[in-house]
Write a structure and sequence with these properties.
Elements (H helix, E strand, L loop, with lengths): L5 E4 L2 E10 L5 E6 L2 E6 L7 H14 L6 E5 L5 E6 L4 H9 L3
Amino acid sequence: MLPTWLKISGESAQILLHVQPGAKTTEIAGIHDNALKVRVAAAAIDGKANAALCAFIAKTLDISVRNVQIQGGEKSRRKILKIAALDDETIQKLEQMGM
């Protein structure tokens, strides 16, 4: 069974995130209000935190950053990320992110 913050459809996935910009380090910080909480070291100025978030998720999943895009909540702490070009290994990594 998938976590509540993760939806997989065909060859893509959506991740519901709660993002904390301006943190000391960039890291996954567990679950917050049915969303995966991610602390991002970059400030929420001129899209820097969003770019850092996409780069961090891509690195964590070992995929290209072009396969990670913000689908909703660009100017909010609550975001939806779309992950494209899924394979079985990436799905497995996604499922383990909140643990």
